[in-house]
Amino acid sequence: MKDGFARPHDEESALREWKSKRRARIVQQTLTGASPVFLLAVWELLSRTELIDSRFFPAPTSIVGTFFDMIASGEMLSHVSISLLRIAAGFLLGTVPAVMLGLMMGMYRPMKAFFSPLLMALMPIPTLALMPIIVILFGIGEGSKIVTIAGSVFFPVVINTAAGVANIDRIYIDVAKNYGASPKAFFFKIALPGALPVMMEGIQMGQAIALLTIVAAEMIGAREGIGYLIWSSYKLFLFEPMYVGLILISFFGYMFSLLLRWLKNRLVPWQ
Predict the structure, then answer these.
(1) Residue 174: is it exposed, middle or buried by C-beta count within 10 angstroms (0-12/13-18/19+)?
(2) Which regions in the chain score pLDDT beneath 70?
(3) What is the pLDDT at residue 183?
(4) How far apart are CA 164 and CA 195, in angstroms?
(5) Residue-level pLDDT at 248
(6) What is the pLDDT of residue 7?
(7) 146 half-sphere exposure, CB direction, 13 A CA radius
(8) What Å distances lie between residue 259 and 80, 85, 118, 190, 256, CA to CA?
(9) Those residues with Cβ within 8 angstroms of residue 220's Cβ, 6 or more apart along the chain or in another chain
């Protein structure tokens, strides 16, 4: 009893459930933060005690020191800026036409019939396997690296976009036809919003592939970039800078994933 009133049973149950979920969420967040800290602590201990070869697995504190040295010298900014520029250019070059083609394939059966065999034939070929042809066509400069990234991004985006249009509930398509919707209205009001959930999954997949591709693309004919940093450090047996490059790729992959997830929540609020 409190102030002469009894708290309803359902309110007490809801409060207990909320407290239980809050405790579970705190435990989960703690474990999420503890796992990388534990791994780094074990790595540091094994490296310092020479239980693992510190030449190939330098202590994390040594890698962090190299990271800050590279920032102070300006080398870090040079590698990161050029790689991000290549990723952004290649990502846009691959995503924009992929979205347009995927929507057209989903909307018009002749387009799907024409392009599907080509996509199915080319998609299994790794983009990196086409690097010799790309270099012949675009040279060893920036163009070949951007086109390589664009090619790796293109296929998952176009396939997912076409699948997203195909999965639109038939009732929306029928309503649009019955009310005589113009092709423009159908495109922007039905096809594009309906394909967005699956299309965003393809874009997220594409950004992950772009990060994988940039490393390999920058190993060929590059003088700057994260991939160049990793490969050149490995060839010179300078493993601290190599691990710095690997950590940068992991960091940007995580941040891009969060950014696209936020964008998806804004563009697809009904999911």
Answers:
(1) exposed
(2) 1-10, 270-271
(3) 74
(4) 4
(5) 92
(6) 54
(7) 14
(8) 18, 17, 32, 25, 5
(9) 131, 135, 140, 144
Judged on CB neighbours under 10 Å (0-12, 13-18, 19+), 257 is: middle
Tens digit of each residue's pLDDT (9 = 90 or more) over 27-54: 787 877 788 888 889 988 998 888 888 8
Whole-number Å distance between alpha carbons of 243 and 214 = 16
Rounded-to-5 percentages of helix, strand, coil across the chain = 80, 0, 20
Predicted pLDDT of residue 1: 46
What confidence score (pLDDT) does residue 244 get?
Answer: 94
- What's the sign of the alpha-carbon dihedral 15, 16, 17, 22? positive
- Residues paired with 2 in a beta bridge: 5
Token pair belonging to 85:
């520029």
Is 256 in contact with 269 (CB distance < 8 Å)? Answer: no
Q: What's the DSSP call for residue 123?
A: T
At residue 270, the pLDDT reads 66
Residue 224's nearest CA partner among 116, 169, 145, 157 is: 145
Give the 3-state secondary structure of residue 5: strand
Burial 61-71 (b: 16+ CB within 10 A, else e): ebbeebbeebe
> How far apart are the C-alpha atoms of 91 and 209, rounded to whole Å?
10
CA 134 to chain centre: 23
Q: How many residues does the chain have?
A: 271
For residues 129 and 87, give the distance between their C-alpha atoms in angstroms, rounded to a whole number.
19
Is the Cβ–Cβ distance between 199 and 55 less than 8 Å?
no
For residue 73, what are the CA distances in angstroms to 67, 69, 77, 195?
10, 6, 9, 46
CA distance 156 to 213: 14
